[in-house]
Amino acid sequence: MKLAGRIPPHIGNLTFLVYLNMSKILLHGNIPEEISHLHRLRIDLTWKNFTGEVPRSWFSSLHRLEVLFLYENKLNGLIPDEIGNLRKLKDLRLQNNRSNGPVPAVILNISLLEFVSLRNNCLWRRSPPNICSHNVMRLRGLVLSRNMFYGEIPSSLSRCEQLETLSLANNNFSGILPREIENMTTLW
Fold first, then answer.
1. Could you tell me the CATH number of the domain that includes residue 148?
2. What is the pTM (predicted TM-score) of this model?
């Protein structure tokens, strides 16, 4: 049996829902704002044909969200600054969409973040945000390839002492690779 269609707005009534995985269902259209009512949720809406923007209400009400997988869709627009409200977020995967504009610096405020993939969008910034500040010490993966980042690669990336995966390919970076990054022993 194949399921297809749109996510109905009534999904917001399932307030005790903890994990939403619709990765094998043929869904399309906009992502309903009513998902923001599901405060305990881990979200996997990958490999869909969702269009439009992620509703901003998600970022103000999903305070317990730890996992947000929205990759392989057709989502567009800016990644809103409100993403910084997701204080429990550990894994953020928005790759292979049509998101554009600058990456919000508020991602730095998400101290539990372990993995970020924004690959293959239309994101830009003079350099990627100082994502390896003292606030984000658990980061193990940072994938920013196939965007429009420019400027020098910041040596501050070396402060991510647990970083195992770093992908910056196919951007418009200039200059040389900072020596501090060359000496990182955890990268493979």
1. 3.80.10.10
2. 0.85
Would you say residue 125 has pLDDT above 70?
Answer: yes
Per-chain mean pLDDT for the chain = 85
Q: What is the pLDDT of residues 70-104, one digit of tens each?
A: 888 888 999 988 898 898 999 999 999 999 999 88
Residue 27 maps to a domain? yes
Which positions ≥6 away from 125 have C-beta within 8 Å?
Answer: 102, 103, 149, 150, 151
Partners of residue 92 on adjacent β-strands: 68, 116
From 75, 149, 84, select the one nearest 113 (Cα to Cα): 84
What domain count does the chain have?
Answer: 1
85 lies in a domain? yes
> Is residue 166 pLDDT above 90, yes or no?
yes
Structural domain includes residue 188: no
Measured between its terminal Cα atoms, the distance across the chain in Å is 42
Number of H-type helices and E-type strands within the chain: 2, 15
Q: With contact defined as beta carbons under 8 Å apart, do 128 and 144 qualify?
A: yes
Which of these, 137, 154, 89, lies nearest to 117 by C-alpha position? 89
Instruction: Tell whether 108 is covered by a domain.
Output: yes
Per the structure, the complete domain to which residue 75 belongs is given by: 4-182
Tokens 């405060």 locate to: 39
CA atoms within 13 A on the CB side of 65: 25
